[in-house]
Amino acid sequence: MADTIKREIHLALIHYPVYNKVGEVVTSSVTTLDIHDISRVARTYAVSSFCVVTPLKKQQQLVERLIEHWMTGYGAEYNPTRKEALLITRVMNNFTEMVRDLTEQYEKKPVIVATSAKKFPKSVSFQYLRKEIKREEPVLLLFGTGWGLEKSILTEADYVLDPVEGVGEYNHLPVRAAIAIILDRLVA
Amino acid sequence: MADTIKREIHLALIHYPVYNKVGEVVTSSVTTLDIHDISRVARTYAVSSFCVVTPLKKQQQLVERLIEHWMTGYGAEYNPTRKEALLITRVMNNFTEMVRDLTEQYEKKPVIVATSAKKFPKSVSFQYLRKEIKREEPVLLLFGTGWGLEKSILTEADYVLDPVEGVGEYNHLPVRAAIAIILDRLVA
Q1: Does residue B3 form part of some domain?
Q2: pLDDT tens digits, A1-48
Q3: What is the domain extent for residue B62?
Q4: Pairwise CB contact (< 8 Å): A167 & B2
Q5: pTM of the shown model
Q6: Do residues B18 and B55 touch, judged by C-beta distance below 8 A?
Q7: Fewest 10 Å CB contacts: which of A129, A146, B2, B8?
Q8: Which of B82, B95, B101 is nearest to B43 (CA)?
Q9: Count of A–B CB contacts within 8 Å?
Q10: CATH number of A161's domain
Q11: Distance (Å) from the C-alpha of residue B175 to the closest C-alpha of chain A?
Q12: Is A60 helix (H, G, I), strand (E, B) or coil?
């Protein structure tokens, strides 16, 4: 389903500020499997960059070491498709830094789209965002770990994307699965 | 997007016979995260059962202990959405046992659909299979771990589903992501 539209989609996996199980704002832990899975999915859908966002230095170092391991030496040789996936992966301190970085890169602010398992007054449909992406504006898609993105991020975003609905009431997808489904709906 | 069609979709995650990196037929290891992720995704799309298929007794016990932990006592209380997801999860020795079990349940053989990252002469499109599912026949979707399902399973299946194509040439989705995307395309 490849086509010639030059999409510029950037993905951010946010570890702060997110909610925990009881609704407190916390910094969630980085999961290495998230990084591998989401890098592969992002690469499959020609995403321009995938950014792991955490303010914790130790966790940033963990991600950097992971990327380095698979990019160079034995890791790269053992698993070249993992290396290729990680080419687009990087780490940042916070959401603001990420937006500033993209704004410098494009000389304009990206369209910021938050995702959520709930619907909001400013939620937009997949179809709407699919068209927006085809206008070739740079788009930054934000995904929350833990129990989802804190409301300040939803407020700051230009759009909130409709939740992924399956069949019936159960709606507790792992973030890894939600990202795969959302990219498939938006760009495949 | 819920509707009133009574779908009967069953999922199997096959750990034998699958290929390894160098094309040998092996038994891959069960990954507990696969079980949690796929159970949640399956539950989201109203899949009737999710079966972890492995001939290794120790691995079967691992899966059974995991299910038991989250179904009863502390696990169930701590994380009820995980419990709900695991309600449809079970373990079987092999593919043949799984087919026999479903055949007994429905008093007819399910439509067996293998998945693969490659295209085959008997590959069918997502659209085709979506229609087949709406005919309300029981469908068994087979997913391979490692480097994919061994060819005897592809031969035995009624259909092979077209590979998930993203954008461009890179095509190395984790099985967890592929299952999420495939269910979304088939039943959402």
Answers
A1: no
A2: 444 556 799 999 999 999 999 999 999 999 999 999 999 999 999 999
A3: 8-187
A4: yes
A5: 0.94
A6: no
A7: B2
A8: B82
A9: 123
A10: 3.40.1280.10
A11: 9
A12: helix
